[in-house]
Design brief:
Blueprint (H helix, E strand, L loop, with lengths): L3 H8 L10 E4 L7 E4 L5 H15 L5 E3 L2 H16 L3 H4 L9 E3 H8 L8 H7 L14 H14 L1
Parallel strand pairs: 3-4
Antiparallel strand pairs: 1-2
């Protein structure tokens, strides 16, 4: 029998099994707004999607690192599964004029590289990265640490 934490670690990158527990959004040069689904339930995900609807209505350009290959397909599949109206706002084809994927942009300038980490691009540009050792399969553990920290205050 798998414990909940082990199950989350094993399915974190599988859009058919993963649960979305956090979405960060920044509009223009504004601060990042983070929406949480701490229990990773469908009801919590629906509430997050409801909160996102007004932010994503209108002319939106989606920008992110590997957003075309991971984030947008993950969100779209979850919205389809829940039959949520957010599915109508998300791009159906991630490689469209409203999607700017920094991983694909970087790959276009370095065709021999199959994948460039965002931390490497940030270092190259002299920007602070997300920190060492954080990858998709460690997000759940980091979120648990953050949740515990918040609850202790």
């Amino acid at each position: 029998m798998l414990f909940r934490s082990e199950l989350h670690r094993r399915t974190a990158l599988d859009s058919l099994q993963a649960r979305i527990f956090c979405i960060g959004v920044a509009l223009e040069d504004g601060p990042v707004e983070t929406f949480y689904n701490q229990d990773a339930t469908d009801a919590g995900l629906r509430a997050m999607f409801d909160a996102l609807l007004p932010l994503l209505a209108g002319d939106v350009v989606y920008v992110g690192h590997n957003i075309a290959g991971f984030d947008l397909p993950m969100l779209l599949r979850a919205a389809w599964r829940l039959e949520h109206p957010l599915a109508r706002l998300l791009p159906r084809t991630p490689r469209s004029r409203v999607v700017v994927d920094t991983q694909e942009m970087w790959r276009a300038t370095e065709p021999t590289s199959s994948r460039t980490r965002l931390a490497d691009i940030a270092a190259f540009l002299g920007l602070e990265g997300k920190g060492e050792g954080l990858s998709g399969d460690k997000v759940y553990d980091r979120s648990e640490e953050h949740t515990s920290e918040l609850q202790s205050h």
